[in-house]
Specification:
about 25% helix; 2 helices; 5 strands; 3-stranded parallel sheet; single chain; two-stranded antiparallel ribbon
Amino acid sequence: MRAVFVDASPILADVMERLHRAGDPPLTVHRDPNVLPEDLPVILDNAQIAVIDHTEPPGFTGGHLV
């Protein structure tokens, strides 16, 4: 299992990396808050866990998966 923080600002990236513990799933922090929805498949690269701060994934409308 692998996790990706998709659109981390510098502050959120630092916090996420400090909170990540040795027993947690591997974590990649994408340190660019300016992610477009169409960039998500490449950034996620089949990760099982996605942490998304503000980029709206395709299929979401008003915070709900449709």
